[in-house]
Design a protein that fits this description.
Blueprint lengths: L1 H15 L6 H15 L3 H6 L1 E10 L5 E4 L1 H10 L5 E5 L3 E5 L2 E12 L2 E15 L2 E10 L10
Parallel strand pairs: 1-7
Antiparallel strand pairs: 1-2, 3-5, 4-5, 5-6, 6-7
Length: about 150
C-alpha cells in the first residue's frame, strides 16, 4: 500500500507540478502591453516581427486590418497609463519555431473600462527570440467578466 501511495504521489507531482507558463513565448506579449501602458513605442515595436499583421473582427463580423506603424505611432502619442489592456494567458501551443497564444482581455482607457474581448497571437522564433507575427482580436462591451 505504501508503494502505491508513493507512486501516486510521484506521478501527481510530475503531472501537476509542471510549469504551465512559458516566459520566453509570453515575453513579447507582455512587452506589447507594458509598452502600451507606459506609452513606450520602442518597447511595443520590439515585440513585433518586421512583417507583423494586426487585425480586428468587428461586431458585424468584418475583419479590419490596422497598420502596425500607425499603431506604434498612436501608442507614442498616448499619455503614460492611458492604454491599459489586462490580459489572461488562457492557452499556449507550440510547435518548433511557431507558437499560438490566446488571451482574453479587458481594456481600460484613461482608467475607465472601454471594452473586452480576446486576442489570438501567432508568434515566431527568430534569432533565438520570440516575436509577434500576427494578432487578431475581438471587441465587445457586453459580457465582460471581471471588470474593475
Amino acid at each position: 500500500m505504501n508503494k502505491i501511495f508513493a507512486v501516486v504521489c510521484f506521478l501527481s507531482t510530475f503531472c501537476f507540478g509542471q510549469q504551465l507558463q512559458n516566459p520566453d513565448i509570453e515575453k513579447p506579449i507582455r512587452d506589447l502591453f507594458a509598452g502600451m501602458k507606459n506609452a513606450d513605442s520602442e518597447l511595443v515595436k520590439s515585440a513585433f516581427t518586421e512583417t507583423a499583421i494586426l487585425q480586428t473582427i468587428t461586431k458585424e463580423g468584418v475583419v479590419k486590418t490596422d497598420d502596425i506603424p500607425g499603431f506604434i505611432s498612436a501608442v507614442s502619442k498616448a499619455a503614460k497609463g492611458d492604454l491599459d489592456e489586462r490580459i489572461t494567458i488562457a492557452s499556449v501551443l507550440v510547435d518548433g519555431n511557431m507558437a499560438s497564444v490566446f488571451t482574453p482581455y479587458q481594456f481600460y482607457y484613461q482608467g475607465k473600462f472601454s471594452h473586452c474581448g480576446a486576442n489570438s497571437f501567432q508568434l515566431v522564433k527568430q534569432n533565438n527570440s520570440w516575436k509577434i507575427q500576427y494578432i487578431i482580436d475581438t471587441r465587445r462591451k457586453e459580457n465582460c467578466e471581471n471588470k474593475r
